[in-house]
Structure formats: C-alpha cells, structure tokens
Amino acid sequence: MQWIAVSNIKGGVGKSTIALSLAHWLAQKGYTVAVVDDDRNRTVSKWQARAAMNPNSEQPAFKIYPFEEIGKAEGCDYGIVDTAASVSDETIKEVTEFANIVLIPCTPDIDALTATQETADQVIANGGTYAILLNDCPRASKRENQDIAEAIADGEYELISQFVRHGIGIKRASLAGKTVEQMKGTQRLPWLDFNAAFQEFSTNYLEV
Length: 208
What we know:
Layout: E1 2-6, H1 15-28, E2 33-37, H2 43-53, E3 63-66, E4 78-82, H3 89-98, E5 101-106, H4 110-125, E6 130-134, H5 142-154, H6 168-176, H7 189-205
Parallel strand pairs: 1-4, 1-5, 2-3, 2-4, 5-6
Helix pairs in contact: 1-7
InterPro entries: CobQ/CobB/MinD/ParA_Nub-bd_dom, DNA_Partitioning_ATPase, P-loop_NTPase
Organism: Leptolyngbya foveolarum
Protein name: CobQ/CobB/MinD/ParA nucleotide binding domain-containing protein
C-alpha cells in the first residue's frame, strides 16, 4: 500500500479538492483507494455527505474515512491523507515519516509560494519525497502563474509541470458533491488539467 499526504502549512490552496480528484483518478485506473480526512474542517467528509444526498451525483469509487478510522484504509492500493492546514513542523515530520510521498498544492500567489517552499523544506529535512502542484491558476494571469512556477524551479524544488486552471466548476462540483469530471461543458475543463497532472505525478513519483 502506498500513502500520499496532501499537505501545505497554508490553508486555502486546494488540498481537499486535489485529494478527492486524485482519489477519483486513481480509482478510474482500477486501483482501490481510500481518502483519510485529517482536516479539522472535515471538507472531504462534508463532500461525501453532499454526494450521498445528491441523486444526480455518482457515488465515489473510493472510500472516505475520518482520521480516527485510518485503520480501515489498510489493504487498499493507495491511501490519500487530506491533512490539516497550519500544521506544525512536528506534524510535517510525522507526515513525512508516514507517507511515501507528500503532494504539496500551491496557488499562484506569494504567500502560498512561501508556505509551499517552507513545507517542501521540512519534507526534505526529514528525508521525505514530495512534489508541488500549481493549482487554481487563473487563465488570465499566465505571467503571474509562470513567475510562481519559475520561482519554484529556481529554488530547485520538485514541480509537476502541468498547472491546474482556476474554474467555477471546481467550486460547484464541491457544493454538489460531485467530482470535477462530472461537471458539464466548460465547468469540466479543470479536469483535463488534473488528468494530465496526475498522469505526470503517477509516472514520476508513484509505484504503479
């Protein structure tokens, strides 16, 4: 079993959306997947409740457990932990020791960049493996997106080359208890980015 922690010391960078989307992507590939909700906001668990109540939402092909029931995830091919924001250095150390890899979401702004670099530094200091995913990138701000990407690359950090665009479909999917792939028309476009990013992540960082 491989464990993936989705973590950043800053909140609001899309951890829960990425955890759910990655779980969906891996399940589509035929793997058994469990998402463990360790976020104090319980975003993943609330999404699961909305999915169960929405007759137009396909039920997820992966399991979701609160952190207290993490043992139930044992035996799956992949376990994905959606960690809390504003975690301490000690928590990052524990996450690094536990997970095979830490996936670090980063939005294209200076505060998120600084927090992302600090998170990656902690993972590195504890001998872990990580990859950074640039997420929620406005299509009208290509220069800013590229500047953040170049800053990450200049620091010799591990960056997934595929960005994930900003899209209203991500928020609406969350509110409806759907995956981004289930959205229609242009609201589904961010899924194309997720698909390419996860393919790159899987090829370069996962044992498949």
